[in-house]
Amino acid sequence: MALILYQRDDCKLCDAALAVLAAAGAPDFTSIWIDADAVLEERYGTRVPVLRDAGSGRELDWPFDPAAVQAFLART
């Protein structure tokens, strides 16, 4: 599973999402900041932070808690 966390610079919700991912025991993921990318800004601008499974295309929008992350990761 290749995970991506879409986030913004200086985003308190994104910082909270990082703590939730750590609490959930999420595997390694790639962080992508959307601020400088017009396409990503259009897609995720009002939704960040968003956790995406790059393989399946599934996304988990904020707000999420450790249980929601674990359930997201358990679905294949």
Q: What attributes characterize this protein structure?
A:
76 residues, four-stranded mixed sheet
Topology, element by element:
Blueprint: E1 3-7, H1 12-24, E2 29-33, H2 38-44, E3 50-53, E4 59-61, H3 66-74
Parallel strand pairs: 1-2
Antiparallel strand pairs: 1-3, 3-4
Helix pairs in contact: 1-3
Can you give the mean pLDDT?
96
Amount of helix: 25-40%
Radius of gyration: 12 Å
Oligomeric state of shown chains: single chain
**Sheet/helix structural class:** alpha+beta
How many angstroms separate the termini? Answer: 9 Å
Number of helical stretches of at least 4 residues: 3
Task: Kindly report the spatial arrangement of strands forming the biggest sheet.
Answer: 2-1-3-4
What summary fits the major beta sheet? 4 strands, mixed
Q: How many beta-strand segments?
A: 4
Order of helices and strands: EHEHEEH
Shape verdict: globular
Can you tell me the residue ranges where pLDDT is under 50 for at least 5 consecutive residues? none
Q: Estimate the strand proportion.
A: 15-25%
